[in-house]
Amino acid sequence: MEKNERVVEWSVVPSAIGPLLLAATPAGLVTVAFHAGPAVRDEVLGRLRARLGAEPAEAPGSALLAGPERQLAAYFAGELRKFTLGLDWSLSAGFHREVLRELASGVPYGTVVGYGDLAARTGRPDAAQAVGAAMGANPLPVVVPCHRVVESGGGLGGFGGGLETKRRLLALEGILPQPLF
Length: 181
Description:
four-stranded mixed β-sheet
């Protein structure tokens, strides 16, 4: 491997909300993708290839993925309330990164925040729509908990993994009643 070549390892793991594609670099977890069937996998790997300039290597159980796999399994088992993973923020920048970092550090398990409130926390109280865009572009859902961002009137808002996935994550955290399935 050349000195400046990036390492990206990935694996698909089962979860309570369906298969997740996890990808990591030596800097940390870089991507979590929902509904990781073949089409999603190909799309995510193509995006990683283009954005990171690296050929992602499938590596289930690798040292880079062991921590994320273990912590996500514990989260879905109801045993983990705060992720302590290294995160590679290279797929987000600017305001999006600022919002995602605030979300990761300032909205704990079992709580929600409105889009406008999260915008205000970043010093841009009129940027609720931009917060929504940052949530939609979040490369690290679940770990950076965009499912905890809701509409000010109590609506769920949008979610890249689908509203049913958002409901299930919020139910897992005790925010919504458990779904009946």
